[in-house]
Amino acid sequence: MSKELEPRNRAMYQLYAKGTSIQAVADTFGVTRQRAAQIIARYGSDATVTDAEARNLHRAQLEGIMDDLVGMYYEPPPVTFDVKGNMLIDENGEPVRDVEIKLKTAKEVIRISETIRRMDATDEPRRRQLAEDEALRHVREWLSQLPQGEVEEG
Fold first, then answer.
1. pLDDT value, residue 93
2. 50, 41 in Cβ contact below 8 A?
3. Which of 22, 14, 5 lies closest to 52 in space, CA to CA?
4. Residue 90's pLDDT is what?
């Protein structure tokens, strides 16, 4: 990393680590969203970062990949060719396009989106696991508060 760009890269990383979106970081520093994601990812891998910062960094990388895939999805699918390298033409004289690429791209976007969702769920506070003795104590306290009924013999 060049000495001149190091302060900028650190500032970009710190903004992102504080929760600023990659697009907002990119707009602030006059770079593309993809370039901001690259800089943030590279800076985070070169520096000592906390677990939360590492998750944010990983999220930035995933969001960058997802943005690229979404962009690819909206581009026209590539034309298809036969084994001899001739472009395939449909009955209307139009080139046959490989729509399978769009389906694969959409599936990847969904997969990455699910990964981000699961990653976000790990950031939520988890319920504290009770030790067995403490759990039994809670159960006994609860049972002791129940009304005592008469037991019928026989």
1. 93
2. no
3. 14
4. 93
pLDDT tens digits for range 69-121 = 888 888 988 999 999 999 999 999 999 999 898 899 999 999 998 888 888 77
The torsion region of residue 19 among left (phi > 0), alpha (psi -120 to 50) and beta comes to left
CB of 88 closer than 8 Å to CB of 80 = yes
Domain-wise residue ranges, the chain: 6-123
Q: How far are the Cα atoms of 45, 78, 124 from residue 127, in angstroms, in the given order?
A: 31, 49, 10
The pair of three-digit structure tokens given for residue 61, joined into one six-digit string: 């990388």
Helices and strands: H and E segment counts in the chain:
6, 0
> What dihedral do alpha carbons 144, 146, 152, 154 form, nearest 10°?
-60
Closest CA to 8 of 34, 40, 37: 40
Of 86 and 17, the structure prediction assigns the larger pLDDT to: 86
State both tokens at 32. 């593309």
**Residue 116: Cβ within 10 Å count:** 15
As a whole number of Å, the CA-based R_g of the chain is: 27
